[in-house]
Amino acid sequence: MIQTLKIGTLRWHHILNPTDENLEYLASNFHFHPLDIEDCRSEVNQRPKVDVYDDYYFMILHFPNFDRQNKFLKIREVKIFWGEDYVITIGKSHWVVAEMFKEGKEQEAQGDDFEVGTSDQLLYHILERLMKSTQKIIRKIGDDVDSINRSLFTIKAEKTIETISIIRKNIIMLNTMFKPQLPLFARFESGQIEGYANNMEDYWGNILDYYKQMWDMTEDYAELIEGLSQTYDSLQANRTNEIIKILTLISSILLPLTFLTGLYGMNVNLPFQHDPRSFWIVIGTMLLIVGLMVGLFKRKRWM
């Protein structure tokens, strides 16, 4: 179903679940390139791009969104046709686009103005809203990194390792998403993508600033989580070494005691075996051995 928002002479068409009939309508009435229509028909994520034509632009952009468990990031595609007097958003796009279109329809029903006059301004507002939403997601990842930093010295190993793994996976997802789109948005500011309205360079530059800021935040968090991961691995290795050290000391102390008790458990003639004080002599000898070994370990600073 094609929904349309009228803003003066400007039209914003939004197609949530495009059918073949909807796409044929776009091809027939707007004369879009068949390859662009095919990209809209595909359910597989396409590579981010901006195709420039004489009378319109076609963009495929990627933005992150959390899954239903609010745990892992997923790529949400935003497909946009951008002409002089229209903007068309297509597909199961990011929820921000659908929410923004819904707000526009509510304002239209109330008779309020949508506060945009050109397709360039409308596109800018869509991109700005997507950037702000993405910034919130990145800040949440930053909060998770801070939480790991605070809980680094706790003994909840499994939970900490799981959280670090999730954060690293999400940051890798952000990196693979942002990297190919950085030069894409740079084309707006440089003027390679001219648009249809004048004096939009500052606005496109603002979009690029948003994107660079998000890229810098992602790189910072990637370095932080990598450092925290290495620190946590070192802490875990140190804890393991301490445990092994204690167990080794205990085993070293018990080894001669085990030998002594095993020796006196043999059915052979041994010293003091007929002495009524033999039990206490053996116990005393064992305590002496323990004392000597503990003293030796302390002298060597092993404990």
Describe it for me?
- Helix 4 (119-150) runs antiparallel to helix 5 (157-178), helix 4 (119-150) packs parallel to helix 7 (201-263) and helix 5 packs antiparallel against helix 7.
- Strand 5 and strand 6 form a beta hairpin.
- The protein has helices at 20-30, 34-41, 95-110, 119-150, 157-178, 182-190, 201-263, 278-299; strands at 2-7, 10-15, 49-52, 56-66, 73-83, 86-90.
- The protein is rod-shaped, with a radius of gyration of 34 Å.
- The mean pLDDT is 84.
- Helix content is 60%, strand content 14%.
- It is an alpha+beta fold and 303 residues long.
- It has eight helices and six strands; from the N terminus they run E-E-H-H-E-E-E-E-H-H-H-H-H-H.
- The protein has a six-stranded mixed β-sheet with strand order 1-2-6-5-4-3.
